[in-house]
Amino acid sequence: MATPRQIEQDIGQRLARLRLARNVTQADLAERAGIAVRTLRRLEAGEPSTLDTFLRVLAVLDLEEAILSALPASDIRPIERVSQKGRQRQRARAPSEQPRTPTWTWGEDGDD
């Protein structure tokens, strides 16, 4: 499994390759995204960046839909709609701890 740092570096490399494939300079992309060239260089180098910066660059490269398609839409399932009476879940809850019922074992009848 990749670490967050490795993923950042991979994303940065992919963005740089895509920018170059589209023959766009760092200065032009940064200006169109409304960020500093240094910020774009850090993003492409895989250094930590903000989500805002990442999304601005994606918008200029026309990749907004690609990033959204990576996350599945969490539509309510029909069975949940019935049990929730049409309401959508607003919070997550920790699973309730079920008390363990002792299991019967041989020799515990007490009816000897």
UniProtKB/TrEMBL annotation:
It comes from the Bacteria. Residues 15-68 form the HTH cro/C1-type domain. Residues 78-112 are annotated as: Disordered. GO terms for molecular function: DNA binding. InterPro entries: Cro/C1-type_HTH, Lambda_DNA-bd_dom_sf. This is XRE family transcriptional regulator.
